[in-house]
Amino acid sequence: MKRLKDSFDRTINYMRISITDRCNLRCIYCMPAEGLIPIEHKEILSYEEILRILRVAVNLGLRKIRITGGEPLVRKNVTYLIASIKKIAGIEDLSLTTNGVLLEQFAEGLINAGIDRVNISLDSLRPDRYREITRGGDIDTVLNGIEAAERAGLSPIKINMVPIRRLNDDEIEEFAKITMKAPYQVRFIEFMPFGTDTWSQDKFISADEIKSIVENIGPLTPVNMKKSGPARYFKFDGAVGVIGFISPLSNHFCMECNRLRLTADGKLRPCLFSETEIDLKPALRSGAPDEEIERLIKLSIEAKPEGHTIPQDTHFRKQIKNKKVYRRPMSKIGG
Ligand code: SAM
Ligand code: SF4
After folding, report:
1. Which numbered atom of ligand 1 lies nearest the CA of 192?
2. Over the stretch 58-85, which tens digit does the pLDDT of each residue have?
3. Residue ranges of domains in the chain
4. Is residue 271 in contact with ligand 2, taking CB distance under 6 Å?
5. Is 273 close to ligand 1, i.e. is its CB under 6 Å away?
6. Do 319 and 325 form a contact (C-beta atoms < 8 A)?
7. Are 71 and 42 in contact (CB under 8 A)?
8. Which residues contact 150 (CB under 8 A, 6 or more apart)?
9. pLDDT the model gives residue 229
């Protein structure tokens, strides 16, 4: 089996693909209130272009794919893309991250198309607060979506929550308690400084602090999970679900990083926290052979930095102070 190694001997076998920068929500930690200027349709990669990149990348050793966005379920014919990816020999794991708003409508179709798993983002269980965080979302649509996903057999259901101080941190325990009765993976993800000026150090809650809040409920036992990725998993005694903590800032997992990101407009991004991007579109649209796509994929792997040093980085601190954060918000990178 082919393996693609980067300059630091990490095997790169995972790609997150943002298929659209558009979204049916406008979460306050992800997008500015006025929304974002959408990428022009002609600049967005077609499904055929995405599939071509994937065929080349699978030949190089890619095995795992996550479809994300923006909100991936708002792009037309998303199930066609999923079914087509599933047919590429060599893909071992195909998942999708969604805000869940359209999941009730799509759960069956996703299963039929061959999706392995979905991650659902949910940052509050309170209707008013959910509406405030998402700037207008209706929590019932997401809860119905989660139920539909479970009925359709999409398991395990992963729920991702981003705790933000004074916004939703008083719900951390409530989210953790879900795992007592439901076989879900509830994962807490540190708030990251992307694209909007919402982030500040005082709103940031480290994974260690989140874990200590969860431990107010009861002791946690570590759980060894296959394919755990960057999450550290734990469980309450007698619980049917598990709790994950993901700490991209406080305790980054760069040495285990196995991923590349492909933006909706065709840029390969070697690291979430680096502005380096390698544009595949000119090659795709000028009739370049697969060898050229292959060369660009290898180039982006070579460009993977060893790691980021964000909490210690003085340049970054200055940026935060000046309210300048990463140019691309998560909705345009693909979280
Ligand atoms: N729209 C889909 C969703 O919300 O799940 C997929 C795209 S969204 C950009 C992917 C993930 O990025 C979500 O789980 C969201 O919570 C997370 N995200 C967005 N902005 C973030 C930030 N500033 N810090 C941490 N996570 C963030
Ligand atoms: Fe949309 Fe997801 Fe960003 Fe929320 S986090 S605005 S749902 S892309």
Report:
1. 24
2. 999 999 999 999 999 999 999 999 999 9
3. 14-333
4. no
5. no
6. yes
7. no
8. 157
9. 73
What residue's CA is closest to ligand 1, atom 8? 335
Distance 192 CA to ligand 2 centre (A): 13
Please state which CATH number belongs to domain 14-333.
3.20.20.70
Cα 253 to averaged position of ligand 1 atoms, centre (Å): 18
How crowded is residue 266: how many other Cβ atoms within 10 Å of its Cβ? 23
Residue 244's φ and ψ, nearest 5 degrees, are: -115, 150
Total-model pTM: 0.92
Shortest-distance atom of ligand 1 to CA 190 = 25
pLDDT of residue 310: 58
- Which of ligand 2's atoms lies nearest the C-alpha of 137? 7
Q: Is 167 in the pocket of ligand 1 (CB under 6 A)?
A: no
* Ligand 2 midpoint to CA 121 (Å): 8
Helix axes 127-134, 139-152, angle to 10 degrees: 100
Beta strands (DSSP E) in the chain are: 14-18, 64-68, 93-98, 117-121, 158-161, 185-189, 220-223, 232-236, 242-246, 259-262, 267-269, 278-279
> pLDDT per residue over 229-271, tens digit each?
788 999 999 999 999 999 988 877 778 888 899 999 999 998 8
Q: Best of 17, 18, 99 to mutate for ligand 2, by most ligand atoms within 8 A of CB?
A: 99
| pLDDT tens sequence across 148-191 | 999 999 989 999 999 999 999 999 999 999 999 999 999 999 99
DSSP 11: B
Answer whether 20 contacts ligand 1 (Cβ < 6 A).
Answer: no
Span from the CA of 122 to the centroid of ligand 2 (angstroms): 10
CB distance 12 to 259 below 8 Å: yes
Position 228 pLDDT exceeds 70 = no
Whole-number average pLDDT of the chain: 90
